[in-house]
Design a protein that fits this description.
Layout (H helix, E strand, L loop, with lengths): L1 E2 L9 E4 L5 E4 L6 E2 L5 E8 L8 E9 L17 E11 L2 E7 L9 E5 L2 E5 L5 E6 L4 E3 L2
Antiparallel strand pairs: 1-2, 2-3, 3-4, 5-6, 6-7, 7-8, 9-10, 10-11, 11-12
The structure holds calcium ion (CA).
Length: about 140
Amino acid sequence: MTANLGEGWSDASCTLGKDHRVRVNGSSESSWTSDDSWLVQDLWSADIDGDGMKELILLVWKQGSFGRHKPFWVKEDERTFSQHIFVIEVREGRMVSVWMSSKFPVEVERLEADGSRLTIWSPDGAETSWVWDTWGYMLAG
Ligand SMILES: [Ca+2]
């Protein structure tokens, strides 16, 4: 699967491999590969905040909800896999994580973004709508 990146990403292309890792390659951006600990299930690109540059939205499985950074009151992180949504953008030629959700509240089979709106389909066929609100995706009723 390849995402069309477009504005802000010069000629970069983005590919989701069979190994569930995302690779971004371009002549001007430094190439980037998603973290070893992420199993990427789906991806989409859209300009979610309206600044004219597309973000990359990843549906990621990973172990534990918090990774290395966890709230001090959480003694032990969960070791089971959970789904997360990560938003990544290019800033001055570098890939920067804009938002990394904790365990996502609904099970996700696939996602599509159109501007600030994110549509999520669950394995049971349920469809939910989310809206980007500066600090993350909020359920849109
Ligand atoms: Ca944007």
